[in-house]
Amino acid sequence: MKLFYSPIHDFAHKTLIVAWEANILSQITLVPVYPFRDGFDITAINPLNKVPTLVTEDQASIYGSQAIAEYLDSLAPGGQNLYPQSGAIRWDALRRLALADTLFEMVTQLVTDHNYGDVERPLFVDWLWPKVLNTVAQMNLDAKVHRSFDIGDAAQIHALTYLDLCIPEHGPQQIDPSYNWRSGNPLLKSWFDVIVKRESVQYHYRRPYEGLDTAANCQAHVNEVLVARDAR
User: Fold this and answer.
1) Tens digit of pLDDT for each residue in 37-46?
2) Is the pTM of this model over 0.70?
3) Rounded to whole angstroms, how far apart are CA atoms 185 and 126?
């Protein structure tokens, strides 16, 4: 399998966490992609030209972190690992997954709009930032419940480390530069301090990517996929 992904390890990656927890990381070739740099176009294997994109052993493309995470989890020896099978515990895990993934998307919107937009849009920030704060507050409430590590937790550590990375350093000027999600969310902070120490997080979080990360390398892997598909 090939995982085309952003090699920026200043935040924890949900797909890498799931691959580690499923004990299948050794089956995956990581292909670094820098979406905003020339030469890293992966449209040939994903019409959205977005990361993450997984190419399976039968050369099928899977788009988006949620679909990729569930696919990788389904390969775990002994059955699914991070996705509860049924009942209230399953829906709670999926609810927290959706909440965390939306937090990640909102932070991405704020940073992208600030760094790549033509003009500052204060009303956009005023509309979106309260949603970020409300989401973190809900995560703090959810941290009251002690549960086995699941996909909701993997998504949450992904989103919170991304929030640490992006806000306020790379965020809009309207956001308080002293903002730290830990303030006022003690249960979430305690949860984070435990989860961030898991091996599935520590093996890559804040550890620089070691390997070839050139545009030529990316395109070589894209071409390998296309050749393999043509040969089928």
Assistant:
1) 999 999 999 9
2) yes
3) 21
